[in-house]
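STRUCTURE:
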């Protein structure tokens, strides 16, 4: 995917300057049906089926829709919940949060800050003993791991 938009203009905030906006038709054409379902329709892959659930490879996890760097292997931990889990994003501004009360309990959806694609949810206070006590429960199919050289 091209990242060669005009990089000349004056520097605005990073998120606004490189925001990726596409129509749903464009996304549908670029993504596989399974990717589209999760990333653009906030679907959830079945637990223990994603390719990165138990991955310990060192590297950076990018957004599969736009290539934005979202998480690193340094914050990934073994939650045994069936999805890749992180205790923090690479940086707070890499993701955005949407509160969701659909099921009578509040959940916090996590989206890519650059292209607004669905990544997963973040949960708090579960006692995992990580530095933040948060669990970013992220669909493997929403990410692409770029292994460290
Ligand atoms: Zn993205």
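SEQUENCE:
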């Amino acid at each position: 995917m091209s990242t060669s938009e005009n990089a000349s203009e004056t520097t605005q905030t990073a998120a606004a300057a490189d925001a990726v906006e596409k129509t749903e038709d464009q996304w549908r054409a670029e993504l596989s049906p399974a990717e589209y379902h999760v990333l653009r329709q906030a679907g959830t892959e079945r637990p223990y089926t994603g390719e990165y659930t138990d991955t310990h490879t060192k590297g950076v996890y990018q957004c599969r829709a736009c290539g934005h760097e979202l998480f690193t292997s340094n914050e990934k931990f073994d939650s045994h919940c069936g999805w890749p889990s992180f205790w923090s994003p690479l940086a707070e501004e890499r993701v955005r949060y949407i509160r969701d009360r659909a099921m009578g309990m509040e959940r916090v959806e996590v989206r890519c800050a650059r292209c607004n694609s669905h990544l997963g949810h973040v949960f708090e206070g579960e006692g995992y003993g990580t530095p933040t006590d948060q669990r970013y429960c992220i669909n493997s199919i929403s990410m692409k791991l770029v292994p460290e050289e």
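REMARK: The mean pLDDT is 90.
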